[in-house]
Amino acid sequence: MEPLMAPPANPPLLLPFRKSGGGERTVKKLRLSKALTIPEGTTVSDACRRMAARRVDAVLLTDSNGLLSGIVTDKDISARVIAEGLRPEQTIVSKIMTRNPIFVNSDSSALEALQKMIQGKFRHLPVVESGEVIALLDITKCLYDAISRLEKAAEQGSAIAAAVEGVERQMGGNFSGPY
After folding, report:
1. For the sheet containing 58-62, what is the strand order?
2. Which Pfam families match (predicted)?
3. Structural domain that includes position 89
4. Structurally, how many domains does the chain consist of?
């Protein structure tokens, strides 16, 4: 049996976020969703109603100054409220939230955002500017963007290969080399 190899330092999945010209694609270039934000004192029951109305699976919590203080996801509600037998109409979201969540700003690279979500093993990442929540980035949007960019790169690669073949036919030679 062959020994297992460590994954590459830069998995191919992360490469589509690089723009030509050396710069990196930023978070603000992704399809950001306006975050559902609620005060820390909201009940879980009310948070669930608001999440259902907006068709979202995460809510960001703000303190009395309107600054990001936590996040609650559908998984938090199922694991920390329902599974524990707590009553949603009596449980305050601040009791079950993940406090001081990791976040990025809109000028952060998309690669950095995706790496934070993968390393932290979470699906949602708040986007903050000057302490104020401006959006919520979902890992599925990062992955959709990566797949879309990979498909475009594959199409461009196919077009280049076809062009090289056309030149080879016209020139009557084989330019593919000994590689």
Report:
1. 37-39, 58-62, 68-73, 98-99
2. CBS
3. 33-138
4. 1
Q: Is residue 167 part of a domain?
A: no
Alpha helices in 59-138 (DSSP H): 74-77, 110-120
How many helices (DSSP H) and strands (DSSP E) are in the chain? 4, 6
- Helix (H) / strand (E) element for 98: namely strand 98-99
Q: Is position 5 within any domain?
A: no
Give pTM, 2 decimals.
0.70
Tens-digit pLDDT profile for residues 65-119: 888 999 999 999 999 999 999 999 999 999 999 999 999 998 998 888 988 999 9
CA 26 from chain centre, in angstroms, equals: 12
Per-residue burial over 7-23, b if 16 or more Cβ lie within 10 Å, else e, is eeeeeeebebbbeeeee
Residue 37 in domain: yes
Distance CA 133, CA 129 (A): 6
Report how far apart, in Å, the C-alpha atoms of 154 and of each of 3, 38, 76, 147, 177 are: 31, 43, 39, 10, 21
User: Which CATH number covers residue 73?
Assistant: 3.10.580.10
In a domain, 22, yes or no: no
The count of other CB atoms within 10 Å of the CB of residue 164 is 12
